[in-house]
Specification:
With 343 residues, the protein is mainly β. It is built from four helices and 17 strands. It has a 16-stranded antiparallel barrel. The radius of gyration is 22 Å and the shape is globular. The two termini are 44 Å apart.
């Protein structure tokens, strides 16, 4: 009997250990509100961005799982989709369209698996490219998206392989590559679009740390460049709790003369349970990559106040104004809503 009890206890310990080595987590956020958008002085009839997300966090639903393989190795997966205001999971919103793979799938944001070793992390599937990984460094909240935040490279990309080196003394780097069906607008008649991007990040050990990043991505079809994006970005805390982010992004077309330079500065300052957020955006376009005809040329600003009921629940009100060179492309956004995140 004593031996049986010992054996049973041993099995229970083994089972508990195995359970601890493998886990699945559900995460996400749901937010909704009222958004008014004026483009060229005219109220937009369809508020597609309000159907897809709130303007504080991205409204989404996902799950991730990990398993410890031992010896410093583990595997994981991540599945994530947009969650619309009416509860539909997956990409049924205009803003989520992408030139990299289908967007009609449920897990339109992320769908990849990965292997973690002491030599780095390798992931395969639909995921952020290396340029998009640095997007949030300078952008402290989603209302910045309404200020013509458009990049040639910097998206979620299907059929991709990404390698991330282990972070060493604050230094990190990633590289992403993929071949996908051609985008009709950029590469008509070509069979595939080749994508390569990389990012180098570093935490400067001064004033509590300054996160900096350099990222670059390139597309080509038929061995010819169709697009290129270069971004330098940084984020730091000033006076303890004032967060400041900044980025300089250059978008380039098929030639070096076809450029758009974008500058973003954003700040976040907490006052008790209230967060005050603001940003300024300026676009300088040279020709067809971002002339006044497509609304990229111009400058704008935005501000938002957020009241945090708890670490998971908040209400917000915000406004942004992009003064495009083209009168028809001037955009004003007023929004208010509530969002709750899952821990």
């Amino acid at each position: 009997m004593k031996k049986l009890l010992i054996a049973t206890a041993a099995l229970a310990m083994v089972a508990g250990t195995a359970q601890a080595q493998s886990s699945v987590t559900i995460y996400g956020a749901y937010g909704n509100g009222v958004t008014s958008v004026k483009e060229g002085g005219v109220n937009k009839a369809a508020q597609s961005q309000n159907d897809a997300r709130d303007h504080l966090y991205t409204t989404n639903l996902g799950l991730t799982g990990t398993e410890d393989l031992g010896g410093g190795m583990s595997v994981f997966f991540r599945l994530e989709g947009d969650l619309s205001g009416n509860g539909v999971l997956g990409s049924n919103q205009d803003y989520a369209a992408t030139k990299y793979g289908t967007t009609t799938n449920v897990f339109n944001r992320q769908a990849h698996a990965g292997l973690v070793t002491k030599f780095g992390t390798l992931t395969v599937g639909r995921q952020n490219d290396s340029v998009k990984d640095t997007e949030g460094l300078a952008q402290v909240y989603n209302l910045s998206d309404n200020l013509a935040n458009k990049t040639r490279i910097g998206d979620r990309i299907a059929n991709s392989v990404k390698y991330a080196m282990p972070v060493w003394n604050g230094l990190g780097a990633t590289y992403t590559t993929s071949n996908n069906p051609a985008d009709a607008a950029l590469d008509a008649g070509d069979s595939t679009t080749r994508h390569n991007s990389f990012a180098i990040t570093y935490k400067v050990p001064v004033n509590g740390g300054i996160d900096v990043a350099f990222a670059q991505g390139k597309e080509e079809a038929s061995q010819a460049q169709t697009g290129k994006t270069t971004r330098i970005s940084a984020r730091t805390n000033v006076m303890g709790d004032l967060t400041v982010g900044a980025a300089q992004t250059t978008n380039q077309g098929a030639t070096s003369a076809a450029k758009t330079k974008q500058t973003l500065v954003s700040v976040n300052k907490p006052f008790g349970k209230i967060d005050v957020k603001a940003h300024y955006w300026k676009n300088n376009a040279s020709d067809s990559v971002g002339t006044s005809t497509d609304g990229l040329d111009g400058n704008g600003y935005g501000a938002m106040a957020v009241y945090n009921f708890s670490p998971r629940t908040a209400v917000y009100a915000g406004y942004s104004d992009f003064d495009a060179t083209s009168a028809a492309s001037k955009v004003k956004v007023t929004t208010a809503g509530l969002v709750q995140t899952m821990v």
